[in-house]
Amino acid sequence: MLEFADANYQSRKTYFVEVILPLAIAKNYTYRVPFEMNNAIRVGKRVVVQFGKSRMYTAIIDKITEQPPEKYEAKYILDILDDRPIVTETQISFWKWMAEYYMCNDGEVMNAALPSALKLASETKITLNREFLGDKTELNDREFMIVEALDLQPELTISDITKLLGQKTVMPILKLLFEKNIINISEEVDERYKPRMRTFLTLNPVYHDQEQLRELFGILEKRAPKQADAVLAYIKLSRQQKAISKTELIEESGAGASSINSLIEKEILIAQEKNVSRLHMEDEGIFDVFDLSPHQQEALTNVKQQFEQKDVVLLHGITSSGKTQVYIRLIEDAIAAGRQVLYLLPEIALTTHIIERLRQYFGANIGVYHSRFNDNERVEVWQKVLSNDYKVILGARSAVFLPFQDLGLIIVDEEHEVSYKQFDPAPRYNARDAAIFLANMHGGKVLLGSATPSFESYFNARTHKYGLAELTERFGGTELPVIEVVSIAEETKKKTIQSHFTSALMLDINQALDNKEQVILFQNRRGYAPVLLCKVCAYTPKCINCDVSLTYHKHSGKLHCHYCGYKEDTPSVCPACGSTHLEYKGFGTEKIEDELAMLLPDARIARMDLDTTRSRNSLQNILNDLEEKKIDILVGTQMVAKGLDFADVTVIGIINADSMLKFPDYRANERSYQMLAQVSGRAGRRGKQGKVVIQTYDVKHRVIKQVIENDYRDLYFTEMEERKSFNYPPFYRVINLDIKHKDPEVLYNQAAYLATELRKNFGDRVIGPETPLISRIRNYYIKSILLKFEKDGVSVNKVKATIRDVITQFQTTKLSKGSIVQPDVDPY
Ligand code: ADP
Ligand code: ZN
Ligand code: ZN
C-alpha cells in the first residue's frame, strides 16, 4: 500500500501556470499548481490566486509550463473555478494583440473583456438577488451562512465573506450561488432587454360563417351596441391589414376597452399576446419578408464578389438607402454556412428598434450585449456565445471581447462613429480596428457600413486595401431632404430671430406641426448655459478640480462640471466683486427646450441628451413617445443623429453649426460633415421628402456647401490635401502620450524630460509637450506629447517598443514620482 502511494508520488509532475491578473501590471506572474489540480488545469480557466500581501484575485491561465519562475518563489494556486475554459485561446491571443497594439497591459485588456461577475476579487461586492424565488432550503451550511449574513447586511465584500466563513477561498461557493441566481455580483443598472408585448385580436373563426355573423350582430345591436360597433370596426380594419392590435381597435371603434374586453370574454374576439417591433409595425407588418431593391441587390452582389479577394469591404450607402437590409442577407449567408456573426453598433443606436428588426429574422439565435445590461445577463450572453448557442451577436464596442467560436462575419455599422473608440481607461482601443484583427484570427470577413465613412476607411477602400461598394439612392426613391442655410447674423440684424430660432426655422416648425408631423432640433451642448459671466468684472465660475467653466443646469439649479461631475450652487452675487449683474452666456439643450416652450406653448416638446437618458429605460421611453407621436418636437445633442428612423419626422433644425465647424482639431471638418449629414438623414425617411434648416453665422462655409450637395468625395479630397501636407492620418500614424501630475511644475519637468528622451530616438517626429485644451481634469494637470510616424519604412512595433522603453526608464527615475503616463495609439 505504502509502496504504491510512493510510486504514484514519483510519477507526479510539478506544473506551473502563468496567469493574467485583472491589474495594470507590466508582466504576468507564475503560480505553482498543487498536485491534486494537475489534471484540471487548462489554458483559459479561472484560478484563484493571492497577489500582494493578502489580496485575492481571479486570474486566467495563460500558459502551462514545467519551468519555475526565476526571480521569485511561486505561490500555489488556491482554487480552480471552472470545469471548462471560459476564455478561448483565440481570445487570449486577441487580448495580447490588443495590449501590444494599444500599449497597455494584458490585465487591463482582461478587465475590459470580462464581465465583472467573472472576475471576483477581494473587494468585489456581493448582494442578494431579491428576485430569486427558488427554494433556499436546499442550500448547504456555508451557502446558508452567506445568504443569512446578506439578509442582515445588504452588501458584503468577498473579504468580508472570507472572514465570516473562516476559510481561505470562498470564490467557488460564490460562483455557485451566482450560477443559482441567488446572489448578484457588483450590482449595476438593470436594464434587461424586454421585448414589447402587444395584444392582437382575431375574430373567432365561427363567425367566418356569414349566417353566424349576422345572428351575432342582431343580438349585439340590441343588447350591447358598442360591442357591435367594435365588431364592425374589426371587420373594416381586417380588410386593410393582417394584424389588428387591441389598442388600434379601441381607437378605430371608439368603443372603449371594457366593450372589447367583454367581446374577448365571450370569445367573440380571441386575444393573443405577441412580441412586436416597437417602431415598425404600421408599415412593415409583423413577420415580414422583404426583397432587396435592384440597387441593394447590386450592392450585395458587389460585396460578396469583393469578399472573394478582400477581407474587409466598405459599404458606402447614403442615409436610408437600406444598408441594414443588405446586412441581413449577409448574416443569413454566414449562418447558413454554420458560422457566427458579430454586428457592431454604436451604443446609443442599440435600441429595441434595431433589436426587434433583427429578431424578426433571426429569432432566438440573436444575443444582445451592451453596457446598459446588468452583469448577470452579460454572463449569460458570454456563456451562450461560448457554447455556440447564439449565432448572431448585436453589440456595442465591448462585444468584440465575447468568446466567439467561429466568427464568419463582422458588421461594423456606422463605422465612422467616435464611440467605437474607448477613451478611458486603457485599453484605448478602437472596436472597428480591433474587429478587423479579430475577424482575421477567425478567417472571417468584415463589412464596414456608413453614409459618411471615416477618412481612414475610405482611404483604405480607395487604395484597394479594402473593397468598396456603394448605395447612392434612398430606399423607395425618397429624395434626400432639402437643406436651407439661414444666416443668424442677418436675422439678428433684421430682428426676425426670436431667442435662438430664426424666422425661417420657425416657419418650417409651424408647418410641420400643422401637418401633424414631427421635428428634431439639434444642439450639440447639454445643460442650460455653458458660461455664467459677471457683467461688471468678467468673472466666470470654474470647476475646483478641472480647468473648465461650469455649466448652468436649470433642472438642478446648480452649476455642473461636465468633466468630473462636480456641482455647486449658483451664486446670486458675483463672488469676486459682489455685483448682481450675472449673465448666462451660450445655450445648451435645456435652454432650447425652455425657450421653445414659451414660443410654442401648445407643442409637446421633449429633450434627449445625457441628462435625460441616465436612468433606466429613459432613452427607450423617449423613443417610444416619439414613435407613438406623443412628442412633436425632440431637442437633443448628437444622440439624435444616431440611427433614429421615424416616418413622421420631416423637419430637422440645426440650431448652431458654428461651434462644431470651429472646433480646433484637424478632424473638425470631417466630424462636422458626418454630424450634419447624419442628423439630416433623420428627415423624411419614408416616402415624404424632408427639410433641414442649418442656422449659422458662416453661411458660406465649405463644409456646409458639401453637405448640401451631398458631396462626400469633394470633402474627402479637399481634406486629404491638408492631411497630407500636415502629416496627419491616414498618411501618418499618430501616438499621443498624456502625462499627468497634481503639481504643474513637476509635470512641466517630467514632460520636458520625456520629450527630450523621445527626441533622441525619433527627432522631429516628436511634437510638444503641449498643454491640451483642457489642461487640468480631476486635479491632475495634463501635458501631451504627440508622435507622428510615416507609414512607409517605419516599423510600428519597433517604435512602440522604444516608446515603452523610454517610459519604463523614466519610471525608474526619481523625477517620475507621482506621474501617470498614458499612451494612446490612433487617438481621436
Ligand atoms: P440605412 O441603414 O441605410 O440608413 P435602413 O436600412 O434603416 O437604411 O432603411 C431605411 C428604411 O427603408 C427602413 O425603414 C427600412 O425598413 C426600409 N427598407 C430599406 N430597404 C428595404 C427593402 N428592401 N424592403 C423593405 N423595406 C426596406
Ligand atoms: Zn464680478
Ligand atoms: Zn471638474
TrEMBL record:
Needed cofactors, names only, are: Zn(2+)
Annotated positions binding Zn(2+) 2: C543, C546, C561, C564
Q: Which reaction does it catalyse?
A: ATP + H2O = ADP + phosphate + H(+); Couples ATP hydrolysis with the unwinding of duplex DNA by translocating in the 3'-5' direction
Cofactor: binding details: Binds 2 zinc ions per subunit.
Q: Which residues bind Zn(2+) 1?
A: C534, C537, C574, C577
On assembly, the entry states: Component of the replication restart primosome.
Q: What is this protein called?
A: Replication restart protein PriA
